[in-house]
Design a protein that fits this description.
167 residues, alpha/beta, Collagenase (Catalytic Domain), five-stranded mixed β-sheet, 5 strands
Length: 167
């Protein structure tokens, strides 16, 4: 199944870290890979905001009552496969993914892989949340979501080179 068309709107709302060349294309490729893997039908659009730790901490506090920065927040616009439609282009509005670029940099060093892999992983994670996956719903759902994330990483040529579990 080929996704009709996906529009990924990327906003860089932080000034701390220069976004490496190719990251925007990688974000788009990752969104496409998730939708293809999940056999998503129709056109879609998703917003990706690249922010700093302070910005994402404020959102985390406001929406999750957790007063700390996090790596990714997702704001799905659909439920049970039903989405609002953008009247201008007929695309399904999937939602918003917010990524802390500071956390991407920190975690890539912590886990010993590239900034590109960390960014793609967090985008895949966010896209799966937008499509209804929920790792907080139990150990089976967590495992299922993790398997899907790694499948996308392999599709993108960014396989896992280390564990996300620290000793």
């Amino acid at each position: 199944m080929i996704v009709d068309k996906i529009r990924v709107i990327i906003s860089d709302k932080q000034k701390e870290i220069k976004i490496p060349t190719g990251i925007r294309m990688l974000i788009r490729r990752c969104c496409n890979a998730v939708l293809k893997m999940e056999d998503f039908k129709g056109s879609a659009e998703v917003n990706v905001s690249l922010v700093d730790n302070n910005y994402i901490q404020n959102l985390n506090k406001q929406y999750r009552e957790k007063d700390m920065p996090t790596d990714v927040l997702t704001f799905p616009m659909g439920k049970n496969g039903e989405y609002d439609i953008n009247p201008e282009n007929g695309a399904k509005i999937l939602g918003d993914i917010v990524i802390s670029v500071e956390k991407v940099t920190e975690q890539s060093k912590l886990y010993g892989h590239t900034v590109q892999r960390e960014m793609a992983y967090l985008i895949a994670h966010g896209m799966l949340h937008i499509l209804g996956y929920d790792h907080e719903a139990g150990s089976f759902e967590k495992l299922r979501m993790r398997e899907r994330e790694e499948k996308v990483m392999n599709l993108l040529g960014l396989p896992c080179t280390s564990s996300y579990v620290l000793n």
